[in-house]
């Protein structure tokens, strides 16, 4: 009678701060990880200066950022691709969305607001077939107003590194322009069924 080998224990997500003040998100037991060379580096400097309130940001988002995205050729191409290739696929089941590294919409680059508009439009299209019960956002630079905005839209905001533990095979991962070591750690935990992000070849080629 052959004994079955026990599966290796899951490595836990943890945060380790190195000597230079960087915080790393790593997997493994405490005490044996070198934070200087492992995991995701996170700089915890939340930007709090903003000219927005909840009302003024949502007004600008609906009147400016969302229309610009939906009128773009990129949206039309992406929508067509999802309608023709993703929705008909029988082997794709999406139950949740995780967004990593969006950036601050109220105190950062306008790119964050354009990316939020893109994500909302993608979720609307995917929702024609898939029941996406939860959309989770994680970015250490989010300030309190960013949290309030996303929650007002019906989304969940978690602290780093909690979103990584939620990744599974029915996840739609939205992480445009996320740096390669962030992507590597996410993909080491689970392979999402659908992912929108940067071309990793850019990092390979330097």
Write the layout of secondary structure elements.
Layout lengths: L12 E5 L5 E5 L12 E3 L11 H17 L2 H14 L9 E5 L10 H16 L7 E5 L5 H9 L3 E2 L13 E5 L4 H10 L4 E4 L3 H4 L2
Parallel strand pairs: 4-5, 4-7, 5-6, 7-8
Antiparallel strand pairs: 1-2, 2-3
Helix pairs in contact: 1-3, 2-3
Distance between the termini: 52 Å
Low confidence ranges: 17-24, 35-43
Alpha carbon gyration radius: 19 Å
Q: What best-fitting shape do the alpha-carbon axes yield? A: globular
Q: Helix amount, in percent?
A: 25-40%
So what's the oligomer here? single chain
Q: Count of DSSP E strands?
A: 8
Cross-sheet strand order for the largest sheet: 6-5-4-7-8
Structural class: alpha/beta
Most strands sheet: 5 strands, parallel
> Mean pLDDT across all residues, rounded?
81
The total count of helices amounts to 6
What is the H-and-E element order? Answer: EEEHHEHEHEEHEH
